[in-house]
Structure formats: structure tokens, C-alpha cells
Design brief:
Blueprint (H helix, E strand, L loop, with lengths): L4 E2 L22 E8 L1 E7 L1 E2 L5 H4 L6 E7 L8 E2 L12 E5 L20 E7 L6 E10 L10 E5 L11 H5 L10 E5 L4 E4 L14 E5 L9 E4 L6 E2 L6 E8 L5 E9 L3 E7 L4 E6 L6 E3 L3 E9 L7 E11 L4 E10 L2
Parallel strand pairs: 15-23
Antiparallel strand pairs: 1-6, 2-9, 3-8, 4-9, 5-7, 5-8, 10-13, 11-12, 11-13, 14-16, 16-21, 17-20, 17-22, 18-19, 18-21, 22-23
């Protein structure tokens, strides 16, 4: 079926605005990708700073170009073989890593690298057969915005080496369960239809084309809702915040919290023996068992008296035993 093209209704390309505040090293993570010659489908979980492509990709000498589909209400053109040509197709934006004398430098229309975004990396044929690259930034909490009745090029927040199958991941979502999925074949450079979602394992850092039937806000079988959309920020006066965990799946999930960095957080626990709440260090929190289709609130309190004066930052990691990993930046300030 080489050369097949699937076209979805045309519309107007939207400009995406994204506000980003510079983070310190305590909130940053480094994402590592294994790239091969030709086309690579990458899901970037972190938000680099600065975010201009020339800076983000400065050290990737083997990179030829970077492509992403940014339209949310316009043409979603899925081309089975990217080498057939993406430039000029509605919704596609590109950065060409070439000298200014190369005419393609004037064709660049990708001006910002966004976290929680899927990309196609085109690697030069002169590159090693396989090599690794790293991109550093703070974890992006930007939600996936699904275009209804369309293919979407997306990626997901997963635990490396413990990823779920596509079938298990999408089972709770009526808009995605059983819908078509295409995965890039790095050898042929073409998108291939995923035959068996029940046995095919997802890959951390990988982007795929996933069909969304109707509208959807689905982010995954484990939903983590924060009071703020881009992280857990206490500022200089806020003391407590609540995180809501929701198990959307039909199986029990065991969830763990891990905190690193300078911020000191305590969690609230009910003392069954004495009949009142107590507060304990977050890193001593036992695993939370979430029954199918259930939710639980987790109260987190900052302890500024155990932190240094000034701004402290950290990283909160929420994982479950089914292969989900969600990371969020954390910060709090102590005035005196």
C-alpha cells in the first residue's frame, strides 16, 4: 500500500501560543532519544528554554530537519511516506537545520519547540546508523488537544521499559479504543498500520498517528489533575494543594509518588488508631491503590521552615504499575 494518502477535512491553521517561565535545574529533566538515519517519530515531553529551534537543536549535527503538525481545526494530512513531501501541506511546520546559503533556510516556519508535542526528525543519510540525542527542559503539563474525527500525531507519558500495550492504554476511551493507529517503521521510513493493539507495546518518547472518533479530552488511563495547569507552584504564601488521581480503567492501579529537588512536601494521612489526620514527608508515602473507575485526593503541604531562603524548585513524579509516568515541576519560595 505504498504511497497511500489519507486526507481529512481542510480548514484554517491556528497559531498556538504557549507561555513558559524559565526553570532552574531542580525542575528540569533530560529526555534521551535513539535516532536512526532517515525519519524518526519523536514525542517531546519537556519544554526547552530557550525554545527557538536553532538553540534547541544546536548540538544535533546529524539533523537535517524537524517537522510537526500544529493545526487543531484544519487539515490533518497523514502521508504514509513522509519522503513524498510535507512542506506546503496544511498544518505542517518545519525547521531546516541548514546553512543560510541553503534555500531551505528560508522555508522554515517552525519558530518554537513546544513540550508535549510530536515531531518528525529527519536525519541525514551520512549520519551513523544509530545514535542518541538529548533535550533538556521542564516537564510539560500541556494537554493533548484531540482533533475530532481525524488522525492526530501524538505521544504519551510512559515509564521507560514498562510501557503498556496500545490496547490497554486506550481501552477506557470510547473515542480511541479500537480505532486505527499507525507507527513509523524506522527502516522503511513509512507509517505502518498497527495490526494487533492488544499485543503491540507502546514506547516512551515515540510519536504515532492515532484516530480520534468524535471529541475527546483523553490523556491516558491514569489521570492526574493539578490545581494549576502547568505544575505545582506554592509561591511565597500558599501552603496546601490537592492532587486528584483518577483511574479511568477497569483494572486496579498502584500509584507511587516521588519528589526530588529542594522543595519539601508533606502528605496528609488519616491516623486510624487516633482518629485524626497527620502529616508525613512525601517520600515516605506508601503506594496508593486505586480501584477501577475511582478517584482519590492527595493533599500536599509545603514545609518552608525546612527549606532555604529564596526560591526552591523540585520535580514530582507520579507513576503506576501499569506503565504510566507523569512528571510535574514544583516550586515554593521562602521569604525569610
Amino acid at each position: 500500500m505504498k504511497g497511500i494518502k489519507i486526507f481529512i477535512a481542510a480548514g484554517v491553521v491556528l497559531a498556538i501560543a504557549f507561555a513558559f517561565t524559565k526553570a532552574h535545574a531542580q525542575s528540569e529533566v533530560t529526555q534521551t532519544f535513539t535516532l536512526k538515519r532517515g525519519w524518526n517519530a519523536v514525542f517531546l515531553e519537556v519544554q526547552p528554554d530557550p525554545r527557538d529551534p536553532a538553540t534547541v537543536f544546536a548540538g544535533l549535527d546529524h539533523l537535517d530537519s524537524v517537522w510537526t503538525w500544529l493545526s487543531r481545526e484544519s487539515t490533518a494530512e497523514f502521508i504514509q511516506n513522509p519522503s513524498e513531501g510535507l512542506y506546503g501541506q496544511p498544518g505542517w511546520h518545519a525547521y531546516f537545520k541548514v546553512e543560510e546559503t541553503d534555500f531551505r533556510s528560508r522555508l522554515t516556519n517552525l519558530y518554537a519547540v513546544l513540550g508535549n508535542q510530536a515531531y518528525l526528525f529527519k536525519v541525514k543519510n551520512t549520519a551513523p546508523a544509530e545514535f542518541t540525542c538529548q533535550i533538556t527542559g521542564i516537564p510539560s503539563m500541556r494537554k493533548t488537544r484531540w482533533l475530532a474525527d481525524s488522525f492526530n500525531m501524538v505521544g504519551f507519558h510512559l515509564r521507560p521499559d514498562s510501557e503498556p500495550t496500545f490496547g490497554a492504554f486506550f481501552a477506557p476511551s470510547a473515542a480511541h479504543a479500537g480505532q486505527a493507529i499507525y507507527r513509523l517503521n524506522n527502516t522503511s521510513g513509512e507509517w505502518e498500520f498497527l495490526q494487533n493493539q492488544a499485543t503491540a507495546t507502546m514506547r516512551s518518547g515515540e510519536a504515532c498517528w492515532v484516530y480520534c472518533q468524535g471529541g475527546s479530552t483523553y490523556q491516558g488511563p491514569l489521570r492526574v489533575d493539578l490545581p494549576m495547569s502547568d505544575g505545582l507552584y506554592y509561591g511565597s504564601s500558599l501552603t496546601r494543594q490537592t492532587i486528584t488521581l483518577t483511574n479511568l480503567s477497569s483494572v486496579t492501579r498502584t500509584v507511587n509518588f516521588a519528589l526530588s529537588g529542594e522543595v519539601v512536601l508533606y502528605y496528609r494521612e488519616w491516623d486510624v488508631t487516633n482518629g485524626y489526620y497527620t502529616w508525613k514527608p512525601l517520600n515516605q508515602m506508601p503506594a496508593t491503590v486505586l480501584q477501577p473507575e475511582s478517584s482519590r485526593n492527595v493533599w500536599l503541604e509545603v514545609r518552608r521552615e525546612q527549606m532555604g531562603v529564596g526560591l526552591s524548585e523540585g520535580l514530582l513524579e507520579v507513576t503506576d504499575d501499569k506503565g504510566i509516568r507523569i512528571r510535574a515541576p514544583v516550586s515554593a519560595e521562602r521569604i525569610q
